[in-house]
Design goal:
Blueprint lengths: L5 E2 L2 E2 H7 L3 H14 L9 H16 L6 H4 L12 E3 L11 E3 L21 H11 L11 H19 L27 E6 L6 E5 L18 H11 L18 H5 L11 H8 L6 H6 L1 E6 L10 H5 L2 E2 L3 H9 L19
Antiparallel strand pairs: 1-2, 3-4, 5-6, 5-7, 7-8
The structure holds zinc ion.
Zinc ion binds next to helix 12.
Length: 345
């Protein structure tokens, strides 16, 4: 499509249309690692070594047989969450698993940003793609020619490496259910936050990729669901005026104003805001950042057309607007510039 940028040596539209399997995704990641020195932008040797580490961590947590995804007798059923069996389960511990994080990774955007913990292949994939950047020809990147198609490519990649629903293919029939090979519904949203001035950006996905059969009998996982959600919430400790605290963690503006059980940390914005709106950027820099969220139903389109994908853009939820306020943004209206998303099909 005319005008849309290449990224990692391939046009974003081709990455959307033609990367059509888990193996295709990893072939692209490997191509980036092998050829990074010659890409636009070029990727340093040091960053390529980090990308190799992240790529390995993604594959261990991905379909179809990543060993950390599949687990063993003590960590079944399979989850796209790095985990270990909890000591004392089931008699003396409420959850079958605990989250086992990778060593912290630093984003590449800012030298003072904190190293963040990762345990999900979708978040690691967002980190990988974000470390390849910023945008090529950074002064000229726009939502239309780079950030929107990149967010869509990222969302499709996530649905290829895991989850229970895959992206659409041109060969699908009208009733195809697009059964994925992994577990858990796809993230509701995929988000990109960027700095129009520098072209730096960060991609994130909503919490996804886990299942939590209840109870302590064989097959059950006890309180695994809140364990995962609380760990993700904890990422936000230290984000400006985020109150933190275990007693607050089951409360949120979205939850108070709707029936949605969305807690802080759930959202696709989590890692992106931590990287792009954290206290390591001054207020003037934070105020120029922009972002869009893309609802997962965009993936019903097997081919990229801006008109179709744009129907699935959405504004930050109430929780994320609160995060923007805590980050000191006096004009968060800039962040919800798009009309309400079309009703779900
Ligand atoms: Zn949100």
């Amino acid at each position: 499509m005319a005008g849309i940028f290449d990224f990692g040596g391939r046009n974003l539209v081709d990455l959307y249309n033609d990367v059509n399997s888990r193996d295709d995704v990893f072939a692209y990641l490997d191509h980036v690692i092998a050829n990074g020195a010659n890409l636009n932008p070029a990727i340093s040797r040091e960053t390529r070594a980090e990308l190799q580490t992240i790529r390995t961590q993604i594959s261990l947590l991905s379909v179809t047989n990543g060993t950390e995804y599949v687990g063993d007798l003590a960590t079944t059923p399979g989850q796209h969450i790095r985990r270990r069996a909890t000591l004392g389960w089931p008699r003396d511990a409420p959850s079958k698993f605990e989250v086992l994080v990778n060593n912290g990774h630093r984003g590449r955007n800012h030298p003072e940003s904190a190293a963040l913990e990762y345990w999900s292949p979708f978040d690691l994939l967002g980190l990988f793609l974000s470390k390849m950047g910023g945008a090529p020809n950074h002064g000229t990147a726009t939502e239309a020619n780079f950030y929107l198609p990149l967010a869509a490519v990222y969302g499709r990649f996530c649905m290829w490496i895991g989850l229970n629903k895959r992206p659409a293919l041109t060969t699908d029939g009208p009733e195809d259910r697009r059964q994925g090979q992994g577990v858990g519904d796809p993230s509701s949203y995929y988000q990109i936050t960027w700095d129009p001035y520098s072209g730096q950006f960060f991609l994130g996905a909503g919490l996804a990729g886990y299942v939590w059969p209840p109870g302590r009998r064989p097959g059950g996982t006890g309180t695994w669901k809140p364990v995962v959600r609380e760990r993700r919430y904890s990422l936000l400790l230290g984000f400006h005026n985020f109150p933190g605290g275990f007693t607050e963690w089951t409360d949120s503006p979205t939850k108070r104003h709707s029936r949605r059980d969305t807690l802080f940390g759930n959202c696709a914005e989590t890692y992106a805001y931590l990287e792009m709106l954290g206290p390591h950027y001054d207020l003037a820099a934070r105020e120029r950042m922009r972002g869009i969220a893309l609802h997962r139903d965009f993936a019903q389109f097997p081919q990229y057309t801006a008109a179709n994908i744009m129907l699935y853009r959405d504004s930050p939820c109430m929780n994320c607007k609160q995060l923007l306020t805590w980050a000191g943004l006096t004009n968060p209206r800039d962040w919800h510039f798009c009309p309400p998303r079309q009703p779900r099909r």
